[in-house]
């Protein structure tokens, strides 16, 4: 991270410099650390510039000119999610910064960082990656500006996007540049997005269409190329026509399959955006190798304050990637994919043993899992030949019978972790997919007996059937079945443990009536919680497509969307109806939908008569 460290390695120059909007944390939960260690393992000299000042190119020059390329990422989250609340107010804290200090990264970090690099080193290739670039790879709805923006590759002076998890792509890019290849000719790597000139695109289509082409080989090559890609509506079309936006979304959503997916082309006014098919999943051996690279598990020693994000995951273990849950508001499907890639039990155990050797380890492993806690080792018999199904969900509206929902491998892992010398507890307090847990009573019993520290956080998100259907989440009958089973199992174990619900307001499909229904359900079932978030439209999710277009992209049917600040505030207030500060908003919501029967002193009322608490 400094010229002094470069010299200490005996290096005269760096091959690759990684730019990140996060503080540098050398832990496998952080993308910059993984990419850096993977490139180092492949024999490249890597530097990191973390949270550079962006008002001039000076900070981007401090490690010199890299021999091969710059890699640019906003960090572990989209910069606008890091910087802004769902109400678009500046956050007071950034967990990815030293001391939790806010304001150390710009909005649209990837674009701004790329511009500063281009000022400093105009001839050096720029490769964009991480969640911000990955999920803004097509024309997308941008919540901050409330409009459709171009692909981030059309807005930034960069050469490639690496989308998805990136290890295989970035190493191949580095090796090909090392061999002398021009980055403008690196156009065939799965899991990457590149730019084509508008003129070249028009000529390509013309050649493919002309059967009388004098050079039949040229015509054939052009036609073969186009068969590997699907063209979706252009930026000009999707930015003006919401139906076209929804249709384009449906097409590229269906191609995010590394087994059968095609590439996708989207014309923009000044360039043509070309997404290659997704990269394959890492094998078990490759996953093991990546997570057993020599991460220190610490923040860089130059920091004088702790980085809160590390404290949350320092003694946790990543077991797998991907999620087949298919929740409409989640972007994991478009980033990590719907198929599960798991590490071996032995690899996880080796990492756990290293945790026990740390001087500040207190005997508690506080998280075991991935995007979910309990999909480790699960698979579907169809994945190998055709990937995840394109026409149906694995879990919604019910769990697909082709899916192996056994927790056997996970249970073996948890048991062996508990047996490690120095390990007192192995907790899984969050991330449990409860509809899957219901399928395996043995798992649920061991979860309650050994792996919960008083509270289990789960995410039903809503209790209105209308809303959970739009979210592609299980309905409340599944939630109720789980909570009853959870209570029964804890009683059997002799434990007093509780469920904490994560709930959401303002999601597409959710009306004030739906929020009142949820408030009444919470009132009647004792589930009042502070864990409520207002829906934030983030790029490339099904829910964001619905939020912008008012359409279900798969059926074309209209979806109700609460967009006004006042209604969104009322929806959120209904979840915290006990808070005196929300009285006026709750009253107004109840009055608006004719539910003043819920105002008064009776037990069923949400609030008392106006002004009386």
Provide a descriptive summary of the structure in words.
The chain has 613 residues and is an alpha/beta fold. It has 25 helices and 22 strands. The chain has a nine-stranded mixed sheet with strand order 3-1-4-5-8-9-12-11-10, with helices on both faces. It has a three-stranded parallel sheet with strand order 20-21-22. The protein has a two-stranded antiparallel sheet with strand order 2-13. β21 (498-505), α22 (512-525) and β22 (532-534) form a beta-alpha-beta unit. The longest helix is centred in the last third of the chain and has 18 residues, at 476-493. It is globular, with a radius of gyration of 25 Å. It starts with a helix and ends in a 21-residue tail after the last helix.
The largest pleated sheet is described as: 9 strands, mixed
Q: Helical residue percent? A: 25-40%
* Approximate shape: globular
Structural class: alpha/beta
**How many DSSP H or I helices?**
25
Number of beta strands: 22
Rounded to the nearest angstrom, the distance between the terminal CA atoms is 56 Å
Mean pLDDT: 95
Rounded radius of gyration (Å):
25 Å
Low-confidence parts: none
Enumerate the strands of the largest sheet in spatial order, edge to edge or round the barrel.
3-1-4-5-8-9-12-11-10
Q: Approximately how much beta-strand content do the residues carry? A: 5-15%
């Amino acid at each position: 991270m400094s010229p002094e460290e470069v010299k200490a390695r005996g290096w005269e120059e760096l091959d690759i410099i990684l730019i990140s909007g996060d503080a540098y944390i050398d832990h496998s939960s952080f993308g910059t650390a993984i990419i850096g260690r993977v490139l180092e393992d492949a024999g490249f000299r890597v530097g990191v510039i973390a949270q550079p000042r962006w008002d001039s190119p000076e900070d981007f020059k401090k490690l010199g000119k890299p021999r091969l390329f710059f890699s640019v990422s906003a960090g572990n989250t989209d910069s606008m999610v890091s910087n802004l609340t769902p109400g678009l107010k500046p956050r007071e804290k950034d967990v990815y910064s030293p001391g939790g200090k806010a304001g150390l990264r710009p909005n649209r970090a990837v674009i701004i960082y790329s511009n500063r690099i281009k000022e400093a080193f105009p001839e050096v290739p720029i490769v964009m990656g991480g969640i911000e670039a990955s999920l803004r790879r097509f024309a997308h709805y941008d919540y901050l500006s409330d409009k459709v923006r171009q692909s981030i590759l059309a807005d930034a002076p960069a050469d490639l996007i690496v989308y998805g998890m990136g290890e295989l792509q970035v190493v191949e890019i580095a090796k090909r540049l090392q061999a002398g290849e021009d980055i403008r000719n690196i156009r065939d790597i799965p899991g990457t997005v590149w730019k084509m000139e508008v003129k070249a695109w028009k000529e390509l289509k013309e050649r493919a269409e002309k059967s009388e082409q004098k050079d039949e080989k040229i015509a054939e090559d052009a036609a073969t190329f186009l068969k590997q890609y699907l063209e979706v509506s252009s930026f000009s079309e999707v930015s003006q026509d919401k139906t076209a936006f929804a249709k384009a979304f449906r097409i590229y959503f269906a191609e995010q399959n590394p087994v059968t997916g095609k590439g996708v082309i989207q014309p923009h006014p000044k360039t043509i955006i070309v997404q290659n098919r997704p990269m394959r999943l890492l094998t078990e051996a490759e996953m093991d190798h990546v997570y057993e690279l020599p991460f220190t598990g610490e923040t860089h020693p130059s920091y004088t304050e702790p980085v809160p994000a590390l404290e949350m995951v320092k003694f946790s273990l990543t077991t797998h990637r991907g999620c087949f849950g298919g929740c409409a508001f989640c972007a994991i499907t478009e980033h990590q994919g719907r198929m599960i890639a798991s590490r071996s039990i032995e690899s996880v155990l080796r990492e756990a043993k290293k945790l026990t050797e740390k001087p500040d380890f207190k005997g508690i492993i506080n998280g075991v899992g991935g995007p979910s806690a309990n999909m480790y080792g699960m698979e579907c018999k169809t994945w190998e030949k055709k990937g995840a199904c394109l026409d149906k969900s694995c879990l919604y509206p019910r769990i697909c019978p082709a899916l192996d929902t056994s927790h056997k491998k996970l249970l073996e892992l948890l048991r062996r972790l508990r047996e490690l010398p120095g390990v007192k507890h192995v907790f899984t307090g969050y991330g449990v997919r409860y509809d899957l847990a219901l399928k395996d009573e043995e798992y649920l019993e061991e979860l309650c007996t050994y792996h919960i520290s008083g509270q289990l956080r789960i995410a039903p998100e809503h209790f209105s059937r209308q809303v959970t259907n739009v979210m592609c989440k299980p309905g409340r009958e599944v939630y109720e079945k789980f909570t009853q089973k959870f209570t029964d199992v804890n009683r059997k174990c002799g434990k007093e443990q509780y469920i904490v619900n994560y709930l959401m307001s303002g999601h597409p499909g959710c009306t004030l009536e739906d929020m009142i229904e949820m408030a009444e359900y919470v009132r009647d079932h004792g589930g009042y919680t502070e864990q409520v978030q207002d829906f934030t439209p983030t790029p490339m999710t099904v829910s964001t497509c619905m939020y912008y277009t008012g359409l279900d992209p798969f059926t074309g049917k209209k979806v109700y969307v609460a967009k006004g600040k006042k209604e969104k505030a009322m929806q959120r207030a209904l979840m915290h109806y006990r808070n005196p500060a929300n009285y006026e908003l709750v009253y107004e919501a109840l009055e608006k939908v004719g539910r003043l029967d819920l105002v008064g002193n009776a037990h069923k009322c949400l609030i008392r008569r106006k002004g009386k608490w």
